[in-house]
Amino acid sequence: MEESSSSFFPEPNAAEAAAPHVEVDGGQEDEHDPESNSLQQPLLKRSPTLTASHYAMVGAKVSHIESLDYEINENDLFKHDWRSRSSNEVLQYIFLKWTLAFLVGLLTGVTASLINLAIENIAGFKMLYLARLVKDQRRFCSSGSCRYITGFAYLAGVNLALTTVAATLCVMFAPTAAGPGIPEIKAYLNGVDTPNMFGASTLIVKIIGSIGSVSAGLDLGKEGPLVHIGSCFASLLGQGGSKKYRLDWKWLRYFKNDRDRRDLITCGASSGVCAAFRSPVGGVLFALEEVATWWRSALLWRTFFSTAVVVVVLRGFIEYCNSGRCGLFGRGGLILFDVSEVAVSYHINDLLPVAVVGVIGGLLGSLYNYVLHKVLRLYSLINERGRVAKLLLSLGVSIFTSICLYCLPFLVPCTPCDPSLGAVCPTPEGSGNFKQFNCPNGYYNDLASLLHATNDDAVRNVFSTSTPNEFRAISLLIFFALYCVLGLVTFGIAVPSGLFLPIILMGSAYGRLLALALKSYVHIDQGLYAVLGAAALMSGSMRMTVSLCVIFLELTNNLLLLPITMFVLLIAKTVGDSFNPSIYEIILELKGLPFLEAKTEPWMRNLTVGELAAAKPSVVNLRGVEKVSRVVEVLKQTSHNGFPVVDQGGPSPMGTPANTTEIHGLVLRAHLVAVLRKKWFLKERRRTADWEVREKFTSVDLAEKGHKVGQVLITEEEMNMYIDLHPFTNTTPYTVVESMSVAKAVVLFRQVGLRHLLIIPKYQGAGISPVVGILTRQDLIAHNILNAFPHLANKKGEKGRNSHS
Amino acid sequence: MEESSSSFFPEPNAAEAAAPHVEVDGGQEDEHDPESNSLQQPLLKRSPTLTASHYAMVGAKVSHIESLDYEINENDLFKHDWRSRSSNEVLQYIFLKWTLAFLVGLLTGVTASLINLAIENIAGFKMLYLARLVKDQRRFCSSGSCRYITGFAYLAGVNLALTTVAATLCVMFAPTAAGPGIPEIKAYLNGVDTPNMFGASTLIVKIIGSIGSVSAGLDLGKEGPLVHIGSCFASLLGQGGSKKYRLDWKWLRYFKNDRDRRDLITCGASSGVCAAFRSPVGGVLFALEEVATWWRSALLWRTFFSTAVVVVVLRGFIEYCNSGRCGLFGRGGLILFDVSEVAVSYHINDLLPVAVVGVIGGLLGSLYNYVLHKVLRLYSLINERGRVAKLLLSLGVSIFTSICLYCLPFLVPCTPCDPSLGAVCPTPEGSGNFKQFNCPNGYYNDLASLLHATNDDAVRNVFSTSTPNEFRAISLLIFFALYCVLGLVTFGIAVPSGLFLPIILMGSAYGRLLALALKSYVHIDQGLYAVLGAAALMSGSMRMTVSLCVIFLELTNNLLLLPITMFVLLIAKTVGDSFNPSIYEIILELKGLPFLEAKTEPWMRNLTVGELAAAKPSVVNLRGVEKVSRVVEVLKQTSHNGFPVVDQGGPSPMGTPANTTEIHGLVLRAHLVAVLRKKWFLKERRRTADWEVREKFTSVDLAEKGHKVGQVLITEEEMNMYIDLHPFTNTTPYTVVESMSVAKAVVLFRQVGLRHLLIIPKYQGAGISPVVGILTRQDLIAHNILNAFPHLANKKGEKGRNSHS
Fold first, then answer.
1. Which residue ranges run through the membrane (chains A, B) (predicted)?
2. What is the third-level CATH fold of B348-411+454-590?
3. Stated pTM of the model
């Protein structure tokens, strides 16, 4: 994140001015950020080392990030393809679009069910066996301490083994599978393609790693990973399989564009949330509120369809497993944490304690964000030392977790079973809500009941209603403190990990604690306070409102709680927002992903795009019919991804004067490379006819990505030939006049989903270049602009907050 | 809707070419559509008679509709104001924004509660008294027929009186209060300001009229009107009171812009839905999915806050009234149609009958849309005959409704009370779910139970669960047929009316009927089938998905029904969409509101904005420092609302060559009129300094609307003076190059929320005008373009559907 502040305004020296195409990087263009629009030095002080892996936050793994093209590239080939598309093909496209949305839902639903099945069985049997081991272990040792030590060795060993599987897979095969993946999905939908994020290996590692890490009893959830898994399925389906072993199915050719993949990945993300919380509407809203940058109602409908498929699949699995055919999985119903049986009645004087829950939730949430930020920075120092360091860190956290989970219950006294609940008090097998652990028969250890269970069961226990005396304050306090520490130290390790469940665990504990502390003022059930606490902390950390509200409604099935949930969420978000941004924004910034925010800074109104472009080296234009050597030179010596195509005078259909210049459009690097690879060269400088190019190219050929100009061999003879760029040029790039304020340019760039924005001059006349600059995503990131124009930062300080938030 | 197809391409005759500023409308500029960009004739065959009133659909009331300016007008005054805004003022603004959102919620909640209270009491006591009148009316007549006739006379009389109040108010004082108002709100948020839509008189008439018409037993709901009421409150609060008696509160000056009013009205619309269905999350989603055109997450949060306030207010009222302090109001809980007590269990073989509900819902919904369209066209012929005709139509519908409601129950036989439900069978006072009407004691008339109740109670009756034999098939059939007819004939009359409840009534009846018909195949409760039927018909007619799903969840409080509700909604929407557009889109088109759709037509890619602009008369440019006489002439002779400001050569800060032209920006008609009114004229042609204009103007002065150039008196001497337009010019208008395709221009126009879009030439050079055209909303409406370029329409037919939907 450290950036030197030098060399932004290039010293205008003669050598540079005379030779604008000085080669600086010796052909290693791929090492550079390809969004860079500069020939000599990085423009606008962008960080050239954008990191892609979750835990390598200070640059262990350098890679370039290419922007996605969500705009439609209207070149001649596209237009021909568009016109010639038969209504049959259009129907195929629509059918396929819905089929893919269906498949995304189906695969996500099935995978989520299988993951749940695996986790519930592995973690459940692990805990059952532990209980049995501790309770009667006559065979090996008879003394108490021996039993407990064996028990601990068993628990720590199993947890360590599971963690090792998860961490090793992540470290060796798919570093991008670590962490939740939600920030990267958010960035993808904003137009930033993090490499290796949605591949088949990531998917497989994520699934297995998620099972391992959650079963290992680490303080992390499967929710974030499920969102990522859904998106991976979507991305793979959109490509027609993995990139390496791709099925070249003819129908899929219309999906080889960033727009359709974006839509599919949005479906995948909603499906993932839906599968995680069994919350179909919450899933759609989560994608809408938190993940997606662009939204339209057609997409609302499609994501809704995907989540409907997911929920039908989940319901089918649960119904099938309900009769015990799947081991420990499927015993509950469709609703994860049902608290609907308690009657909710509250009055005006309940609002104050509820407001306290919200305020504390906001404070804790922002504090959590702050500390987690520090911890992640520290971890990245460890993680960048290499694979072994990453692995050791994960294993260390696993051992620490095992020690805490196992030893802390010894600190609390045993609780006698409530005779009115007799039937559910610890059963001999150790299943059920109450764990006996070190207590005599007829007693249970309330902290062990929380800690010696799967995370889901722990939440269910804390949410349990009409049980005012089930948990002691001291146990809840220990539980809360433990999960605060675990939540901070676990998130950054190299295993797939979600943020939702750790925060719900923390929040539910503090909500229930608060209810115990305010016992005399509180008329609402403690279990509901736990729900409110979880919602408040969630909102205080993630800063979502409507989607959280619906997710909690669908998690707990208590509609009457909705008004106070809304109240708590609003308070917690307001309190949290006054301290720091949301946890996902913090992670995005830590990773250095060039995410384009929706809100513009006030000082952006005081800067024009002309001023911004003047601070950059000038743009490289190509002519409509260009020499091959010039194209190769430009491609090799710059790292631009788009070049304006400008025609000088020449023959024009409207018979304009000869001294005019014409903006023909913008041609992409990928398309130029495609032309060079196919060697579609002309002997003389002339414009080609439509049929000529269509004999050689289809619009699908141009959609291929990833080839580099260095790989193309061109002979000396070919170098002197010409290329007609007109058929490949996007004739309708978006433009702004140079007097446009940056604030408005950002609105245009983000709302329309651009990759390049051309700047045209305010003054018209002979001899003025028709394109004075190109803006890319990097140029419009507030952080980058402030580095280039530090005086704006001061003004920013004076103004305080953005008044158009 | 009739439009002549002539005169689109003006014949280039010499007179016109020589005198481009021929006066055509003799100063009656306000009679013309001010969005028109033409000097001589309407461009692009737009309809010059946009109608504003709900029932005057074929042009009874001609009025012009001005587009709203959702873009920030960055002129010098704004920029100065922006820079000089202290952080204290920014805080004031933020505080005020939230206060207004709070007040919108509070007022909507209180008003909704009072409306409910009035309706439940008026309609409830009306029905109670009717039951008593029919049951024992010894005093006046003893024979059966006499009793029934008196009963009918009483019912018809009361209904007629209530309808008269509602219709008279609507016809005399606020024609815009008739109908639901939702299409106009949708249009407002799209940028179309229907006149007199959000005024104080509309608000008051809407409240009283809504009470009257719903109490009168007409087949309409208070839901649509409540949305309109919420929006009216928002609009009035944003202006600081009614336009006529406006409080000029200093803090409100920052709200005198279309953007902030738009946000407030979005809050108002969500509050209205929330108040109507007691559905806070559904309200937010309704605004998001159906009403709003632009959306950002800050707004999501603010609307969520408003609906939270509404729901707290509603809950407070219900709690207060629960003990009987408000007459018949408040006996139920917060949930309107609670069906949560029934256990939902369904299997794979239940999916088929549920799918049938969806398919029939989609068919019926689109059929309803189709027939309602025809009825509304017919009604508009009646309504345009004048106020008396409107009034008579309303009264006729009222009498017809009374006859049906009263007489139809005689057709069905009496049902003996089920002894297991003994306690609730008809009570002597006639309250409760079962109505005795013409039946002996111990029996009830099931059709009367549905018809002699408020609409809400009727829905509750049809939704009632675990009562498989409560209603006969014949009664449900009559009920369904009756409400199909009433739903069609009632909607277009001149009273405030909502569409939700009529559709729910119809849908619930057919759902329950279907469950009766498929008795042997159906394992889900009949009441739940009624809910599904209502959801399906709603989706089939209104084509919403997520918001309807949440509204139904919050209406019925049955989370386990959610997956099949989603299933039904998706099927119904798919079926409906294959026949016609949603009912709101049909009404928008009927009213001729220039609504800009999100989806672009495929043929828009084959047309450039340059071709579109070439079909229009040329744009009128102003110079940076312009003669007063020229400004007055242009304002009087054109009806444009925006003029490009172009400087020729002249002094420029960057020392460009003298033969250049400079696009300075765009100046608005309203601002030119403001300058003329303040008479800020210069003796000589010069550019002014910043302080000069700020002595005379603030940015708030420019925000005033509605003044006309004809009202300004300018002396001969003043005519020869100059105006410096630079300080008033928006220096950052959005522009497109003339080669841009119309599809992309529409995306830009809509996504960024524009009013004017400048077209700049593709060719650059001396002597080329820097602005070749202006596009407005009217130019980009698909319908208008097709009128101008009929050959595109043919292609459209070939292509079938838009493949990017």
1. 152-177, 197-218, 299-317, 354-371, 391-412, 473-506, 527-553, 559-576
2. Clc chloride channel (1.10.3080)
3. 0.86
